[in-house]
Amino acid sequence: MTQPIQHPQDPNLDHLCSALRDNAPRWSRVSDWPLESLQLCGRFGVFRWFVSSAQGGYGWSDREQTEGYLRLAEADLVTTFVITQYMGAIRRIAGSTNPHAAEAWLERLMNGDSFATVGISHLTTSRRHLSQPVLKAVRVDEGYQLSGMSPWVTGGTHADLLVGGATLDDGRQILAAVPRESRGIDAKPGAELVALSSSCTDQVMFEDVHVSDAMILGGPIENVLQSGIGARTGGLQTSTLAVGLSMAAAKFLSAEAEKRQDLLEPSAQLMDEVKILRDTLLAACSGEVSCDASEIRGQANRLVLRSTQAALMAAKGAGFVDGHPAGRWCQQALFFLVWSCPQPISHAHLCELTNIPLSLDLGPTS
Questions:
Q1: Domain residue limits at 211
Q2: Residue 358 lies in a domain
């Protein structure tokens, strides 16, 4: 009988991570949606970590959630990334002042009986430069009509519910929970990516999709995502995934060092660096230190690239054979250069890679 994981030190988390680690090599192509691992997480109560006890969850603190994500990402980055999008939808439903969506969906989402995901990148960093919004909302009787597309939706074709943002002609935005079975929705099957293809991340098309007022989670207001509807503060979630993957690579290098004297010093150095950044991340989530999310993200990006490449070098030719974890980790590390990576951080990385001194004032990050 599977027992729910009640806190980050729960031994059941070890059992779950072991199972996720065993499954991880299976999630490679678009056809490999990690349903089995997601169902397993549901049985262990993972999806309740992120919801308050008043709403039926376990009410984990930001630090506890981060500890949980670190363990899951170390075991299986693909499934953990999918969970971040799933929990993004759940938090926004739970955090809305409109109770109808929560009453209809929250319990089955926390159980893992239904799957939800988010389509909001076009409201933040992706495609904001375009003159026209990619997903438009028009006010109609008792709701809104959505037309256009959401460009980067994880698991859209497998979702029962889509939490997405759309823009009205006057620039105000709404956040809506839209059942995928609604007429006019066409969720694409997933793009074959360099890594994380099995997350089935792709476009979702909307053609005159009606959304009732009962399913509006926020708005219409300007910058609806800044209204605090279920949002996480600090922008540390993607960095958490990078540190978790770095820990997997560092532990692999440590295991190899037990057999090879030449790896002892590099292994110890890398493990120390991963632990320091992990501790900094946890302290930032706890409010123990002033949090510079952009600095942590930059450090996490550099660390995940170096640690996975170090694991590949230690694995030698075997690591370059398809199916070896070191090769898979190197591919996955590239994900952090493009996913929700603020432009100033991208620019800093580019300057480093091209050996250009970084002397510009890059301004605040988003």
A1: 117-225
A2: no
Mean pLDDT (the chain, rounded): 93
Map the chain to HEC letters: CCCCCCCCCCHHHHHHHHHHHHHHHHCCCCCCCCHHHHHHHHHCCHHHCCCCHHHCCCCCCHHHHHHHHHHHHHHCHHHHHHHHHHHHHHHHHHHCCCCHHHHHHHHHHHHCCCCEEEECHHHCCCCCCCCCCCEEEEEECCEEEEEEEEEEEECHHHCCEEEEEEECCCCCEEEEEEECCCCCEEECCCCCCCCCHHHCEEEEEEEEEEEEHHHEEEEEECCHHHHCCCCCCCCCHHHHHHHHHHHHHHHHHHHHHCCCHHHHHHHHHHHHHHHHHHHHHHHHHHCCCCCCHHHHHHHHHHHHHHHHHHHHHHHHHHHHCCCCHHHHHHHHHHHHHCCCCCHHHHHHHHHHHCCCCCCCCCCCCC
pLDDT per position as a tens digit, 304-359: 999 999 999 999 999 999 999 999 999 999 999 998 888 888 888 888 889 898 75
Indicate if 109 and 133 belong to the same structural domain.
no
What is the length of the chain?
Answer: 366
Q: How far apart are CA 35 and CA 140, in angstroms?
A: 37
- Tally of domains in the chain: 3
Distance, in Å, from the CA atom of 316 to the CA atom of 300, rounded to the nearest integer, reads 24
Whether 174 is covered by a domain: the verdict is: yes
Interval 122-139: pLDDT, tens: 887 544 445 689 999 999
Are 99 and 155 contained in the same domain? no
182, 138: one domain: yes
Return the CATH number at 163: 2.40.110.10
Instruction: Examine the domain organization and report whether 130 and 208 are in the same domain.
Output: yes
Total-model pTM: 0.94
Q: Are residues 274 and 306 in the same domain?
A: yes
